[in-house]
Amino acid sequence: MRLLLTILTLATVVLVSESTSFAQRAMYNPSAAGGLGVQNYRPYTARTYSAHAINHAQTLQYYGQHNASIPQGTAQEHAAEVRRNVDAFGKEIAKLPKEWENDPEAAKLIAEIRTHQKQAAEHCGMLETECAKHTAAGGVVMQCCTDMLKHLRAANDAHDKLMKHLGVPMPMGAKQ
What we know:
Blueprint: H1 2-26, H2 43-66, E1 69-71, H3 72-93, H4 104-131, E2 135-137, H5 138-166
Antiparallel strand pairs: 1-2
Helix pairs in contact: 2-3, 2-5, 3-4, 4-5
């Protein structure tokens, strides 16, 4: 009798964990009702915003590293794109399903993403202040971008770990 109860208990645990895992993965099926709605979390969209913020920050970092000053138009153009993408990434992260926070590993990664995203947004403010000048000082822009990139990359890495943890497949061509 005990053996039968043990087997039934194990079978129930396996079924419940598989059901939970399947339910989490099912949220990403674009063909599911409301799968790509404005209110739903879109993991690939978040990943794209993160990548674009990193690319624009790297461009400004390079310009700052190799030039004593950066023309206002160039600096503001890239700073605006960094801001737009950092903010869009933050809005997408805000849509993360609340039930994921019941999973301790997911909750830890979500907190890490939010912390780094917030810090990157703060560095955007410093960058925008410098880029508003007639000519932005290359060294200041480079340092702002270097500090910001640390947080952008950390948020991006934590997001990828979260997706892997939840079993969300990476988009075609993305490194695994």
